[in-house]
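Following up on my earlier thread - several people asked me to post the actual chain instead of describing it. Fair enough. Here it is, all 324 residues.
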Amino acid sequence: MRLGIEKSRNLMTARLAIKLIEEEEIIKNYIEMGYTNKIIAEKLNKDILNINLIINYITKKQSDKKNRNKNVIQDYAAKFGISENLPPYLSMSLGAGETDLLSITNAYGMIVNGGKKITPTLIDRVQDRRGTTIFRHDERDCKNCNGDKSSALAIPFLATKDTREKIISSSSAYQMVSMLQGAVIRGTGKIINSLERNLAGKTGTTNANTDAWFVGFSSDLVAGIFVGFDDPRPLGYKETGSSVAAPIFRDFMKKVLDKTPDLPFRRPAGIKLISVSPKTGFKVNSKQKGSILEAFKPGQLPNLNYDKKKIDLKNTQKNLSPLY
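Reply from S.P.:
Thanks for posting it. Predicted structure:
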């Protein structure tokens, strides 16, 4: 999102052959359903990828001369605490790099909180027998937490100003939230939509169905699910993040969010919600069948001319993104 690639940009889901030193690598979808055009926001929903877009992400250098040799995916993996030493390979953009459940879940927390840095912890606060705080994970100023005035009876007041580091802009974070919400509403995580709450997240499945993941969140709670063996081996035929991990997330959220208010995700100022066609990316009437509601930044709005006719999918040269 930060690189200026619009969520409504149209891409094609064809196979791509990459010539390696000794062999040719074929990149394709988990489930091939023909070559279709869909916008970026919909590709995330169903694991449909366009490797040419990924290549552009991988090779695009930072504008800052000091970091011009550091690719974007490595940079964000480090910023979000997913991996400090992600190799610069194409497969890293598909999730082939190694991480752990706590790190990836923490990264999702930084998306839903508006892009602010989080450091995970198992201990939030420690007080001695007199009520004096001797350890506090939260580094914000806190009246009545420490010093002579602190006691077990005094109510602590945290500073209202959030001084945490910003990893990404709140608008980019919300666009990611919107797309991840789409994955729950109409994508691989739609089993979770049965809860009828504001939830978002993404499935993950490794090669040979060895590991299954689902990481997702409500407006104020993030949870990660991993299913796999200690000694890596296949879980079974078609055992995926959608069929194995997502139901666990659904059942957990159903219990933990029971009798709590269903709060919407916080939308930052400037973001516009516009109904678009999932095939063309053009603005459509909100009542049009199949239309989706997507979040757009100022300057990245979709084609505001109403989509009055279907794109000719056979004439792909006219309709494909310049990145293809």
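The helical segments are 40-45, 51-59, 72-79, 101-112, 170-186, 241-256, 316-319. That should answer part of your original question.
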